[in-house]
Automatic annotation (TrEMBL):
<dbReference type="GO" id="GO:0005524">
    <property type="term" value="F:ATP binding"/>
</dbReference>
<keyword id="KW-0460">Magnesium</keyword>
<feature type="binding site">
    <location>
        <position position="64"/>
    </location>
    <ligand>
        <name>substrate</name>
    </ligand>
</feature>
<dbReference type="GO" id="GO:0046872">
    <property type="term" value="F:metal ion binding"/>
</dbReference>
<dbReference type="GO" id="GO:0035999">
    <property type="term" value="P:tetrahydrofolate interconversion"/>
</dbReference>
<dbReference type="InterPro" id="IPR024185">
    <property type="entry name" value="FTHF_cligase-like_sf"/>
</dbReference>
<keyword id="KW-0479">Metal-binding</keyword>
<dbReference type="GO" id="GO:0030272">
    <property type="term" value="F:5-formyltetrahydrofolate cyclo-ligase activity"/>
</dbReference>
<keyword id="KW-0436">Ligase</keyword>
<feature type="binding site">
    <location>
        <position position="69"/>
    </location>
    <ligand>
        <name>substrate</name>
    </ligand>
</feature>
<keyword id="KW-0547">Nucleotide-binding</keyword>
<dbReference type="GO" id="GO:0009396">
    <property type="term" value="P:folic acid-containing compound biosynthetic process"/>
</dbReference>
<keyword id="KW-0067">ATP-binding</keyword>
<comment type="similarity">
    <text>Belongs to the 5-formyltetrahydrofolate cyclo-ligase family.</text>
</comment>
<protein>
    <recommendedName>
        <fullName>5-formyltetrahydrofolate cyclo-ligase</fullName>
        <ecNumber>6.3.3.2</ecNumber>
    </recommendedName>
</protein>
<feature type="binding site">
    <location>
        <begin position="18"/>
        <end position="22"/>
    </location>
    <ligand>
        <name>ATP</name>
    </ligand>
</feature>
<dbReference type="InterPro" id="IPR002698">
    <property type="entry name" value="FTHF_cligase"/>
</dbReference>
Length: 199
């Protein structure tokens, strides 16, 4: 944890405020026990399956947990068993700061990206267009009651979600209860989520 994470002095700089929240929330996530993480994953799985059934969604985007995020492994397994199409994000190879989504199954090959996060290989035969995505489940570092999401700071999901605002795709954050704050400091590029499931 950097010194900026330990700062207690109030600041008017939104960038500093956001970074301080990131540090605090990531530290809280890391303090969760394996049992708490497992319980959260099970709770999220139940809620997500109910939402998918309610919307009769067949193609959903998920993520692979990293650095204390809620695990999606159980949810992915249940979706495979139900015959749903599961997609994972990959950093766009040509358009910096954007995401592409690829079908993910038991035989998919994964490779670490520049952030050491596993992502699907670049196989265009498995590319899923944004029009096909019915629900995008996103990770997050912090959230508030208004549905605002604070990510890791790269802006990848915000850029991706901006292009979905006029489509029927819904965006759903997955979070631990400890990641909620009263109100996030918002930047003009932030895209609020349609819903947040709390484990």
């Amino acid at each position: 944890m950097t010194d900026s994470c330990l700062a207690t002095k109030p600041t008017r700089n939104i960038t500093q405020q956001r970074q301080q929240i990131r540090c605090q929330m990531r530290a809280k996530r890391q303090q969760l026990s394996a049992e708490q993480q497992q319980q959260a994953a099970e709770n999220i799985c139940r809620q997500a399956l109910a939402l998918i059934a309610q919307r009769n969604a067949k193609t959903v985007a998920l993520y692979l947990a990293f650095n204390g995020e809620i695990s999606t492994a159980l949810l992915i397994e249940k979706l495979w068993q139900a015959g749903k199409t599961v997609c994972l994000p990959r950093l766009h190879p040509f358009t910096a700061g954007h995401l592409l989504f690829f079908r993910y199954d038991r035989h998919s090959l994964l490779q670490p990206n520049q952030f050491a996060i596993p992502e699907p290989e670049l196989d265009l035969t498995r590319l899923v267009t944004k029009n096909e995505l019915e629900i995008i489940f996103t990770p997050l570092v912090a959230f508030d009651r208004q549905g605002n999401r604070l990510g890791m700071g790269g802006g990848f999901y915000d850029r991706t979600l901006q292009h979905l605002q006029r489509r029927n795709t819904i965006t759903v954050g997955l979070a631990h209860q400890c990641q909620q704050v009263e109100q996030l400091p918002i930047e003009h590029w932030d895209v609020p989520l349609n819903q947040i499931l709390v484990g």
